[in-house]
Design brief:
Radius of gyration: 25 Å
CATH architecture of the largest domain: Roll
Protein name: VOC domain-containing protein
CATH topology of the largest domain: 2,3-Dihydroxybiphenyl 1,2-Dioxygenase, domain 1
Pfam family, one: Glyoxalase
Number of helices: 8
CATH superfamily of the largest domain: 2,3-Dihydroxybiphenyl 1,2-Dioxygenase, domain 1
InterPro entries: Glyas_Bleomycin-R_OHBP_Dase (IPR029068), Glyas_Fos-R_dOase_dom (IPR004360), MMCE/EMCE_epimerase (IPR051785), NTF2-like_dom_sf (IPR032710), VOC_core (IPR037523)
Keywords: Metal-binding, Signal
Number of strands: 16
Structural class: alpha+beta
Number of domains: 2
Largest sheet: 7 strands, mixed
């Protein structure tokens, strides 16, 4: 499904060959991205210093619902490391614990023994001051809960009335050691989304919505997969941009990734934009299935053709799908080459 189709006589004969090419394509895509930028794909963790590691982890666990995962240390720090990282020469070893609350980045909690650095929390307007925001489904209920735990709230929740963050409610609170944290919620989205921006911010809200009811299963039936694959063809033949995106939400995961030999498209808007461009260049062409859909557990392959009524097989190829939680999370596109 590309706008440029190179000619050759090679075709993919087996699923093993297809999978091998898939791995080569994926590796090549990652390598290409890394050549043009650092290759950052997301925030892994946020680090914070605390005066007492055990008390801090207890607060994160018992009050905020985090789970401790890994621990390092105590690790002695040599003089050169302290100098390089602006650590007081008299400060002792560091102990680090990584904690996690489900979706999004983890928090790396640091405690320095015999800490000789400043023990005062930075003021909000000090350079280096920061906060961590946690998404909640119901901010009113969350605030009520924090108050029941005697957590200090810095005001009451405020809902943004207009602008890019219209519909977002937020409130700050303090940890027992004085660090500022935030609760945030936007169950109906944010104002900027209504303008159909090129980029939509990632949000744990999307993951929470998919997990509502906790009834998700990684395994779906063969008939369900085949139905979704047929709907995939409907998406690629739909002429109306909005109808196409509405269909995508029923078939593709919000974080769906489409890997082609020349590019990678992520999410509804990027894939929708590519389809729109393809249809404008081939107004009288359509996609159709040329073989039965093959299903193997949570993967499937679809052999297709694309062309006009006079020449329906002008271009042929195969799409390989990976399903999770009832939707397509990966789509690998293979276009046959002809002489």
């Amino acid at each position: 499904m590309k706008t440029t189709y190179k000619k050759s006589n090679k075709k993919m004969q087996t699923s093993a060959a297809a999978m091998l090419n898939l791995l080569i394509l994926f590796s090549a895509s990652e390598k290409t991205a890394a050549q043009n930028n650092p290759g950052i794909v997301g925030i892994d963790h946020v680090g914070i210093n605390v005066p007492d590691l055990n008390k801090a982890v207890t607060f994160f666990s018992d009050v905020l619902g985090f789970t401790p995962v890994t621990q390092l240390g105590p690790i002695p720090l040599d003089a050169e490391w302290k100098k390089l990282n602006h650590i007081n020469p008299a400060t002792g070893a560091v102990t680090i614990k990584l904690i996690n609350a489900g979706n999004g980045a983890s928090i790396e909690v640091f405690e320095y023994a015999e800490n000789k650095g400043s023990l005062n929390q930075p003021n909000t307007d000090d350079i280096g001051a920061s906060h961590i925001a946690f998404y909640v489904n119901d901010i009113t209920a969350a605030v009520h809960y924090l108050k029941s735990k005697n957590v200090k709230l810095l005001g009451e929740p405020f809902t943004m009335p207009s602008g890019d963050t219209a519909g977002e409610s937020w409130v700050y609170f303090e940890t027992p050691w004085g660090s500022k944290m935030e609760l945030v919620s936007y169950p109906n989205g944010k104002g900027y989304e209504k303008n159909k921006p090129a980029t939509i911010l990632w949000s744990p809200k999307e993951k929470v919505e998919k997990q509502a009811g906790k009834s998700i299963s990684n395994q779906i039936s063969e008939s369900e997969i085949k139905s979704l694959v047929d709907s995939h063809l409907t998406i690629w033949n739909e002429k109306d941009d909005q109808k196409r995106e509405d269909l995508m939400k029923k078939v593709y995961d919000v974080d769906v990734e489409m890997v082609d030999s020349h590019f990678v498209a992520n999410g509804y808007k990027e894939i929708n934009g590519f389809i729109d461009g393809l249809q404008k260049k081939s107004k009288d062409s359509k996609f159709s299935r040329i073989k039965k859909i093959d299903v193997n557990h949570n993967t499937a392959r679809l052999y297709w053709q694309h062309g006009s009524a006079e020449k329906p097989d002008a271009v042929t190829g195969m799409d390989l799908f990976v399903f999770e939680n009832g939707k397509v999370v990966k789509l690998y596109v293979f276009v046959d080459t002809k002489k």
